[in-house]
Amino acid sequence: MARAWAAGGRQAGARDTLADPRPLAGPILKGLRRYYQGLAAAVAGDADAAIELWQQGLDVGQAPAHLRENLAVLVFQKLASLERAGDLAEAAALALRSASLPSSAAFDELRLLTLDRGARAAAEAGDWARAAELWEAARQVLAASAKLGSPRPLLHNLALAYERQERWEDAAEAWRAMLRTRPR
């Protein structure tokens, strides 16, 4: 019991220390501050704050070595929880923002599934631009990890979304890409 209190006290103290608003000398220090602020938030169980802080750390440009990997793990967990909760819009937005993170088979599969479900929901709502954006991101995830299956259904949906927007050249390219995947 005393040990848990001490750990909780250290976490709160770390968050307070890291919340110091004084400006830092350079981008490396700003990136480090964001990293450790995110780490403190993650340890405290605030995944949303940790993701936001780590994303800001990446945006600064100078990030610690394991920032991308830690962020990928946290985003994977958050995506899985959003999928279970059925929050397709937020899950798709998070999957879209995670394109630059390191991949793994499970993470790519979850991102692909989330992007496809989000695109289908957008298409059903008549938001073809959003559907095309999500299917294009799913296409890129699939291209980076060929073991996830055939791109044919995805390319078919993408071509239809482009047609609905009257983006004929993009639609033609998606149809051609789909035809190139045809089994011989």
Report the end-to-end length measured between terminal Cα atoms: 66 Å
Task: Count the E strands.
Answer: 0
Instruction: List SSEs in N-to-C order.
Output: HHHHHHHHH
Secondary structure tally, helices: 9
What's the overall average pLDDT, rounded?
Answer: 81
Shape: elongated
Largest sheet: none
- As a percent range, the share of helical residues equals over 70%
In terms of per-residue confidence, which ranges show pLDDT below 50 for 5 or more consecutive residues? 1-9
**Relative strand content:** under 5%
Helix and strand content put the structural class at mainly alpha
Whole-angstrom Rg: 20 Å
How is this structure best described in words?
The protein has 184 residues and is mostly helical. Helices cover 76% and strands 0% of the residues. The chain has nine helices and no strands. Helix 2 (27-43) packs antiparallel against helix 3 (47-60) and helix 8 packs antiparallel against helix 9. It is elongated and about 55 Å long. Mean pLDDT is 81; it is low at 1-9.
